[in-house]
Design a protein that fits this description.
heterodimer, A: alpha/beta, Rossmann fold, 6 helices, 5 strands, globular, B: mainly alpha, Four Helix Bundle (Hemerythrin (Met), subunit A), histidine phosphotransfer kinase activity (chain B)
Amino acid sequence: MMIGAEGASSSKKARISENPVSKNRPYFALVVDDDPMIRRIHSMILKSVGFKVEVAENGKEAVDLFRTGAKFHIVFIDMEMPVMDGIEATKAMRAMKVESKIVGVTSRNSETEREVFMQAGLDLCYTKPLTMAKIVPLLEELQKN
Amino acid sequence: MDAVTRLHRQLVDYSNSLFQEGILDNQFGHLQQLQDESNPDFVAEVVNLYFKDSERLLNEITVALDQQNVDFTKVGGHVHQLKGSSSSIGAQRVNNVCTAFRSFCEERNIEGCQQYLQHLKQEYYLVKNKLQTLFQLQQQLLSAGGSIPAYEMSYSILPLIYLTLLQNDHNALPH
């Protein structure tokens, strides 16, 4: 089974943080956001707790990564992006039988909008900013499975 | 008091004032905690990305509000983007103004939008100026041979991470 960036034809290789998690059981995360600043922050937070991280600039790039055989334990995806938004990308990933945990990350506070995003196939929806405190319980959950 | 001690004190006081005045929130502190030897310019890097993107968005909002027929959905989209990046960098006051601005977009209130655009620019340029001053003070301290003090939060997240590991994956911890 191909996991993470190694499974895709990507030259990007995320460094593994010097962290107890990554030394024994590396977890692979995909960060999907059109904002380079958000991608950088989210990647850094995830790396700091031991995830190996790959990034995508829009929903289509994320879907294409899965199509090329990449697999991730968890996907953090923005709702509003050009080319293909988070809702469409989540639907497409679920249609492809992607079993990764998919976490929506949005600055929308409206319950209606968040519900639409959840119904696309999210496991969870967080309001920006993504913080270490929000990631630790997800890591905890991954370790249980 | 020597130069390094004086600059150190000045930097700590200035940094604290940004949090006390609500210009920055704990999210900025989280970013400072992520900076280490392998990523010494992380905070400056993301702040510069924030400046670049914010100025593009402010320009696009200004142009959109100057049109004969204002596309409030487009304006709201730009404000939403700015809100997302502001919250992610910890620019609390900019984030708060974006929240109020968005409600005027939803109401299609042109006067409210124009008023809040000025308010938004004011808060954005304030945080930009303050962050640039913060980085200048850090550079002065480094040039004088000092080291940048770590941002200390009221609680530390690291024990929480290691506690999580300890509870759930004994093999993951170094023996």
